[in-house]
Specification:
By secondary structure, this protein is an alpha/beta fold. The protein contains seven helices and six strands, in the order αβαββαβααβααβ. Helix content is 39%, strand content 18%. The protein is globular, with a radius of gyration of 25 Å.
């Protein structure tokens, strides 16, 4: 019969080994659950010749973009250096012809709506079309969503999620060493987190989808000033319209060449 001390030592060793395995499995499980998602996608809307294909190609790193027709599909590789992980994000590009709006049914469904980002592309080389273009494509998007079989509760949750994101948004740090810092975002569960109420004109047209307005060909401003006698007041008016539109629809604006 083995001494009691030997039996206790054996049991403690088994427990330590078991705890070690639990620790390893926990780390593996945690790493697995933190992997980049694989079901995200972007829908790009805009008029013909607005720069949709070129913008998507830049995101892909493609130096020789080929323009298609109807509804195109491609993807971009997204890498997270901190996790040493990579995933693919699907990109849908819809033709600028009004008749092709019905093809949204293949890109945006009631099943994938939670994983979709929409980009509205407007051409700044033709600023006189900016207002009509944004209204046209936002209306096409809204009309398509009205046809989806989304439960009221699910739509309410989607809208509330965007409202929280808007209330918790913080301007990025533009200091030189900001890129080396890991950004942490507060959550509604944080004890000291105070969410301010929305303004009267904020999110009055919340579609439940995150949307970005991208103004392409912004380097055409100098040509507009010379050829069409555009003044700073004209550009201020255009920016004001885009910003007001973004504010009521939880859109975000960006200018690119």
């Amino acid at each position: 019969m083995a001494p009691i001390s030997e039996k206790m030592g054996s049991e403690n060793g088994e427990k330590e080994e078991q705890n070690l395995w639990y620790s390893i499995l926990g780390e593996v499980s945690s790493h697995s659950s933190s992997k980049l998602p694989t079901n995200k996608s972007i829908i790009v809307l805009g008029d013909d010749e607005s720069g949709k294909t070129s913008m998507a190609a830049r995101l892909e790193g493609n130096e020789d973009p080929k323009k298609g027709s109807g509804l195109e599909y491609t993807y971009i590789d997204v890498r997270d250096e901190d996790r040493d992980d990579i995933t693919r994000c699907g990109v849908w590009l819809l033709d600028g012809d009004d008749d092709h709006s019905r093809m949204l049914q293949f890109a945006l469904t009631d099943e994938n709506i939670e994983d979709v980002l929409v980009i509205l592309v407007v051409d700044m080389s033709q600023p006189w079309n900016v207002k009509a273009s944004i209204e046209k494509w936002s209306q096409a998007l809204s009309s398509h969503m009205d046809q989806l079989k989304i439960t009221p509760q699910k739509m309410k949750n989607l809208k509330q999620k965007l409202i929280r994101q808007f209330q918790m948004y913080v301007e990025p740090d533009n200091t030189p060493d900001a890129s080396s810092k890991k950004i942490t975002v507060a959550t509604p569960n944080d004890e000291e987190q105070v969410l301010l109420p929305l303004g009267e004109t904020t999110l009055t047209s919340n579609l439940g989808l995150p949307i970005i307005v991208v103004c392409t060909k912004s380097d055409a401003v100098s040509s507009l000033e010379k050829e069409f006698d555009y003044k700073i007041e004209h550009f201020d008016y255009i920016q004001q319209f885009i910003r007001k539109f973004c504010l009521c629809c939880i859109l975000f604006g960006s200018y690119v060449k």
